[in-house]
Write a structure and sequence with these properties.
The chain is an alpha+beta fold. It is built from five helices and four strands; from the N terminus they run H-H-H-H-H-E-E-E-E. Helix 4 crosses helix 5.
């Protein structure tokens, strides 16, 4: 069996972590404006663990710690943040954003209006704004961006916030 130097192992592990991080980042819808700092930090930590492999390997514990760090920061965290990136309320908001953008483009408008978003949410069976309650009787997030979108009009939570700059949508949890 051919022995591979620790530097080659570290370089290969670091390259694999970069590939996983880039693939996981590209798998998420670009309209979601979250996870980028977390993705950058986990990639940096994975590369630090790969750098630990490049150093002298006198202690077995150091090698184990580097391997566990590579597994967690290089594979598990990027894959789980990609899997959990769009819960149902975020998926609903992305669908509403797409429908509202199509409606604005059909009307030859350069911006997406609040009415376009309200019509798209109503067409998909959802609601815009927070529901009125005894504690807060006024509806919030229904008149100006960021708008609060609810997939189920009968429920108060979960919801997502949607804003537009021109025809570019931004979706985030709120």
């Amino acid at each position: 069996m051919v022995a591979v130097s620790s530097r080659v192992q570290a370089f290969a592990a670091g390259g694999f972590c970069v590939v996983v991080a880039v693939a996981a980042a590209l798998a998420v819808d670009l309209r979601l404006d979250r996870h980028w700092i977390l993705r950058g930090l986990t990639l940096a930590l994975a590369l630090c663990c790969a750098a630990l492999l490049a150093g002298p390997q006198q202690r077995r514990l150091r090698r184990i710690i580097a391997a566990v760090g590579l597994a967690m920061f290089g594979v598990v965290f990027p894959v789980t943040t990609t899997t959990w990136a769009s819960p149902p309320e975020i998926d609903f908001a992305l669908q509403v954003a797409t429908d509202a953008k199509v409606a604005a483009e059909k009307a030859a408008s350069s911006v997406v209006s609040v009415d376009d978003v309200k019509a798209a949410a109503a067409a998909r069976g959802g609601a815009v704004g927070s529901p009125p309650t005894d504690k807060t009787p006024e509806v919030r997030g229904a008149d100006a961006y960021p708008l609060i979108l609810r997939a189920d009009p009968a429920k108060g939570r979960p919801w997502a916030c949607l804003s537009f700059v021109g025809l570019t949508a931004r979706v985030r949890p709120c």
